[in-house]
Amino acid sequence: MRDALTLRGNHALLTRANPLAKFAVVFLITLVLALSIDWVSATTALVAELALFPLAGLTLRLLWQRGWPLIIAAALGGWSTAIVAADSGAVLLDVGIWSISEGSLQLGIGFMLRGLAIALPAILLMTCTDPTDLADALAQKARLPHRFVLGTLAAMRLVGLMAEEWQTIGMARRARGVGSQGSPLQRLRATLGQSFGLLVQAIRRASRLAITMEARGFGAGQRTWARESTYSPLDAWVLVGGVLIAATAVVAAAGMGTWNFVWR
Amino acid sequence: MTASDAGASGVRPAAVSARGWGWRHAGRSAPAVHGLDLDIAPGERVLLLGPSGAGKSTLLHALAGVLGDEGDDADETGSLLIDGVVPRGQRGRSGLMQQDPETQVVLSRLGDDVAFGAENLAVPRDEIWRRVHEALDDVGLRSAGGGADGRAGLDADGGPDAAGLPLDHPTSALSGGQKQRLALAGILAMRPGLILLDEPTANLDPDGVLEVRDAVGRCLDKTGATLVVVEHRVSVWKDLVDRIVVLQPGSSAGSAGSSAVTSAVLLDGPPDQVLAEARDMLIGAGVWVPGYVPATRRRTSAGSGDLLLAAEDLAVSRERPRRRGFRTIPPVPVQSGVTAQVRSGHALAVTGPNGAGKSTFALTIAGLLAPVAGKVSAAVELSEGAGIDPFKWKANQLISRIGTVFQEPEHQFVTGRVLDELMFGPRHLGHGEERVDELLERLRLTHLVDANPYTLSGGEKRRLSVATVLAAHPRVLVLDEPTFGQDANTWAELASFLTELLDAGTSVVSVTHDQEFSAVLGGAELRLGPASRGGARQEAGAA
Amino acid sequence: MTTAAIKKTGNTWRVVDIVVAALIAITGGVIFWAWSQGAGIISAPMNAVYPPLTGLIAGGWMIPAVLGMLIIRKPGAALFCEAVAATGELIMGSQYGATVLISGILQGLGAELVFFLLVYGNFRFKSFLHQKYNLIAALLAGAGAGLFCGLNDSFLPWGWNIAYEPGDKLAYIVFCTISGAVIAGALSWIATRGLAKTGVLSSFASRKAASEPVFN
Q: CB within 10 Å: which end of chain B, N or C, has fewer?
């Protein structure tokens, strides 16, 4: 199982910001970058995001260790765009259904960089945000219904257990003669059976957890919060920083004439 | 301990009264409990006994106020009151602990989890943290300083047995016994007058059992709260309670109209008196009565002792090698340097403290996990041409040579019907279907052939899981905690059956804390020492 | 003997509904994660050959929406489960960044709308439209989720396929819809019946799912 991105024992500055402020900024940057496929706005945002690494307690090495599948996925997205996007300019490669032209290659590279620039802020966010603090903020500040927020948080705690149980069920079924080898169809059937076994355990566990929570008075009515979710001046700075990054990316792309609105 | 009005601890012990109370779950035809008349005085401590199906859990759930929203076809009769009021309306008046430690923890930080109940009762913030510290002290999970908001202090990775745990200690890193004590702390922080324990120690190893029992005792002495505990192992709780109530099977009594006059309570009185009067009946119902070891078959042959399987300098881990970017990092073993032999007709008991990697070792020699270092090799007599390394065998080759029975029977169910479940192995192997009837008979499953395996009782599931693995006729049988949570009847049946297999030349490897069970099987003991590295901690509770 | 009727729960969510729905969604994530490790063998060539083909495996992401509703049977279940699944993915790290939340909500909405129209919504044409949580509802809900997934990926700014040519976009949307109906719809329906037989759904409205008619 992939680890959750949250770094335990992370004491970087941004861990102290309110999760909602961080979320707002991540959404702002994401939406602005999404509006244009061009390498300038994406690169500008990427540079700014890399500069924020220390503030979130992330290092390039950690990013590579935990985030490499995402980086490869972003590259693949660029590739698929390059071969499927409309051709324009000189054709560089044309083999059967694959065709890459100057225009589509540029689009592909812009797309790949944009993909990274969109994926990184979310990784930064989760690196320096504990799910418990996020739930506190969502229920207390964003006023989402606390039963749903805390019910989900409690279920999320079991994700590691479910991943462990997936492995155990796989072994237990091999001990019954259900092979993980064999033809793709056999393997698919084996995986479906294993999934079913996991679902049964998940529902059993969740039902018991719900009883535990109800028996501790959960869901009855008004509740207090042992820890208050608060805003601080740091959150204002987070917002200012986010707006600056988004604005710089747009201005740079417009200045260089590369801004390429997605809905032309 | 006598009842006292809300004393220094702020707890007012609760009184329970049931009058002709019954409950039928939605979608069931027979009630789980029927015609229950019971009075429990404030501060009393009651052990609730009875065969499975007597509705003990249903009663506890009702007292905890968590029954009642199953939909329109559930049915309640009579009355069940705490201090004269229906339980559902008084959250926090009682606190409930269930069997599975994983689901007794709600949140990921130690302090938050204790605070959860108090928050739900709208206790003011300062008071919550005062209660959190006090409750953690009471259950022996003393909090190590830390600020008042539950996130102060970096986890110094002091390990679960260090002097104190910070309030932000991850609850996933606790052992099973610690998780149950944490649950108790969460209950205490609500200041309940009634504490309900539903087989709280059934999933724990012997150390964990005592740990939880003693914590409960201390807390009751301090608060004077009323206790109702359901547990098969009477000896654990006998000295702590002052009354035993024995229920009789509810559904059968209730479905027959004429027996409606019969009370659900069969016996009620001081522990020694009830145990003396009802000893035979309780033994018949599979209850673990103190001082009683069920009679089992004795071994008649010593076995040939031919070597079947050997582990040499084995290092084991459940984790697979991890990819970190381009590099592959081998897992940290939970146990290493293990050497052992598995011989025909001999039993091998794998023992050791929690987290020593006992289960992991068993799964590795069973060919289900790849060794981290060292090797597992099958002798020619076992491998019969399938190769020396069991991990590389195909599934079909494996099941006819080494059978593994997992701790949780449900993990091994692969079909929707008991008969198909037993036929599964033989059908894949193409032989052995004729053995199935004998196994059904021998393990008393014949009347269940058409049932869905998941709907069986705990003991039936255990017997089925053993039968399904044996249907493939393996020479080596590996069992992971086969007696955990089992009643005395299933225990005796299983132990006797295994001695027959041993006498017939099968080799039995069992991971177990159960010394009486090992004694019945005889054979060698492989004692694994405590894991040398911190990584073993995660395994605690699972082993 | 006094018999007290237990109050009907109707459309309000109980704690057990919330926790089970959330864990189904999260477990769906674990299964999909495990599955995708093997699916890489399938999706990589798809991507290399004709990228819109990846729409054919998109249905795996939408299982929580349909399965959650078939089990919980409360308004909002599809939307809630899919949103929780997306949140889980965000926490584990997603190549789509924060947009995974928007995709999740839209996919959930696609399935939710179908269930609303076909099953739990209150309409004047109720007698005509009112259905049960049967195979047809499941297939259509899966298709609805798949359609919304395809539209999101093809036309919204953060869509992974925004730069495709119109023909390729159409192909992708069709593939997604089929995949949603088959993988998310049919599989969830089969799983719900299987789960009902094991007895784990005893406290839910779906406890009798195994004996319900397939079509009406």
A: N
With a pLDDT cut of 90, the percent of chain B lying above it is 59
Q: pLDDT tens for residues C104-130? A: 999 999 999 999 998 888 776 655 555
Whole-angstrom Cα distance, residue A63 to residue A59?
6
Residues A236, A111: one domain?
A: yes
Contact between B474 and B308 (Cβ < 8 Å): no
Of C15, C44, C161, the CB nearest to A213: C15
User: Does residue B180 contact residue B104 with C-beta atoms inside 8 Å?
Assistant: yes
Is A264 inside a domain boundary? no
> 3-state secondary structure string, A123-184?
HHHHHCCCHHHHHHHHHHCCCCCHHHHHHHHHHHCCHHHHHHHHHHHHHHHHCCCCCCCCCH
Q: Would you give the distance in Å from CA B244 to the centre of its chain?
A: 22
Whether residue A126 is contained in a domain is answered as: yes
Residues A119 and A236 in one domain: yes
Whether C30 and A198 lie within 8 Å, measured CB to CB: yes
Crossing angle for the helix pair A184-215 and A146-156, nearest 10 degrees? Answer: 130
pLDDT digits (tens, 9 = 90+) for B450-476: 999 999 988 899 999 999 999 999 999
Give the residue from B67, B70, B410, B418 with the most C CB atoms within 10 Å of its CB, the best one to mutate.
B70
pLDDT at B361: 95
| Lookup: tokens for A129 | 């945000």
Which residue, A81, A203, A244, is CA-closest to C168? A81
* A57: in domain: yes
Confirm or reject contact between C210 and chain A (CB < 8 A).
no
Q: Is residue A43 part of a domain?
A: yes
Q: How far apart are CA C142 and CA C49, in angstroms?
A: 26
Burial of A222 (C-beta count, 10 Å sphere; 0-12/13-18/19+): exposed
A67 to A70, A119, B48, B352, C41: CA distances (angstroms): 5, 10, 53, 38, 20
Q: Is the dihedral of CA C182, C183, C189, C194 positive or negative?
A: positive
Cα distances (Å, whole numbers) of residue A233 to A237, A242, B312: 7, 15, 61
Nearest residue to B136 via CA among B159, B115, B160:
B115
Query: Are both A120 and A235 inside the same structural domain?
Result: yes
Residues A32 and A126 in one domain: yes
- B235 CB neighbour count, 10 Å cutoff: 12
Chain B CB contacts of A167 below 8 Å: 318
Give the count of domains, chain A: 2
Question: How far, in whole angstroms, is CA B55 from its chain's centroid?
Answer: 18
Q: Searching chain B, which residue's CA lies closest to the CA of residue C197?
A: B452
pTM for this predicted structure: 0.91
Q: How far apart are CA A213 and CA C201, in angstroms?
A: 19
Q: What is the ipTM of this complex?
A: 0.90
> Over the stretch C145-176, which tens digit does the pLDDT of each residue have?
999 999 999 999 888 888 888 999 999 999 99
Q: Which domain holds residue A124?
A: 2-130+230-255
Residues A9 and A109 in one domain: yes
Q: Are B433 and B425 in contact (CB under 8 A)?
A: no
Q: Which residue has the tokens 């009067």?
A: B277
Element (H, E) at B33: strand B33-40
- Whether residues A211 and A170 share a domain: the answer is yes
pLDDT band, residue A237 (cuts 50/70/90): very high
Nearest CB to A262; choose among C30, C52, C157: C157
Integer Cα distance of B8 and B45 in angstroms: 20
**pLDDT score at B161:** 40
- Taking only residues 95 to 154 of chain C, the set having a beta carbon closer than 8 angstroms to any beta carbon of chain A reads 95-100
Check whether residue A117 and residue A6 sit in a common domain: yes
Kindly determine whether residue B396 and residue A177, on different chains, have CB atoms separated by under 8 Å. yes
Whether residues A121 and A168 share a domain: the answer is no
